[in-house]
Amino acid sequence: MRCKKLFEYEVQSPRQIAYLCPMELDSVQTVAFTGHRTYNGKSDTALFAMVQQLYDEGFRNFMSGMAVGFDLAAAAAVVILRNLHPDVRLVCAVPFEGQERRFSSTDKARYCALLAQANEVIYLCENYCPECYALRNNLLVDCATVIVAWFDGSAGGTRQTVQRARRVGLRIENLWIDPQQKLPGL
């Protein structure tokens, strides 16, 4: 596993993250995930089917923001896919070192197990700061051409990520209820 710490650079605003996208990632082959922490696993089958479909379309790099809920479920789906296709890469974009200290013991164990299986881990900030989640979300959008979301229309980081992805013209696959339904709340 390779580890990068982007906080070694002087990050002055979330917009700056576009210049920090890892050069090893080919955005044409990169998928990023965004979703709510309240994700309960009901779409796990659809999530794995989507990851497999994207692999079949040529995508090999999959980025997870590693938050509790949908992000961890997506990372787990990528690990399963990689067991079938060794050319799959899991890249974990972690907002700050030690983020898992805020997780329940179950979520912390899952997080650590998935992080250990990542091909690359990118830490955006050394410690928590108010903009660290926005930096992570911007990195996800800036490094991908497809966003797979579990977005129910509610306010928060997932909404901001989906809105930004839409503004820059990314393909968005929303697994919340009906993936063909118009994105709620936008």
Written overview of the protein:
The chain is α/β, with parallel strands linked by helices and 186 residues long. It is 33% helix and 20% strand. The protein contains 5 helices and 7 strands, in the order ββαβαβαβαβαβ. Strands 1-5-4-3-2-6-7 form a 7-stranded parallel beta sheet, sandwiched between helices. It is globular. It starts with a strand and ends in a 12-residue tail after the last strand.
Return the string of H and E elements.
Answer: EEHEHEHEHEHE
- Enumerate how many helices there are, as a single number: 5
Largest sheet at a glance? Answer: 7 strands, parallel
Helix content: 25-40%
Low-confidence stretches: 7-20
Widest sheet: strand ordering: 1-5-4-3-2-6-7
What is the first-to-last residue Cα distance?
Answer: 37 Å
How many β-strand runs?
7
Mean pLDDT: 86
Concise synopsis of the structure shown:
This protein has helices spanning 44-56, 70-84, 105-116, 132-142, 157-167, and strands at 2-5, 30-35, 61-64, 89-96, 120-125, 146-150, 171-174. The protein has 186 residues and is an alpha/beta fold. α1 (44-56) packs across α2 and α4 (132-142) runs parallel beside α5.
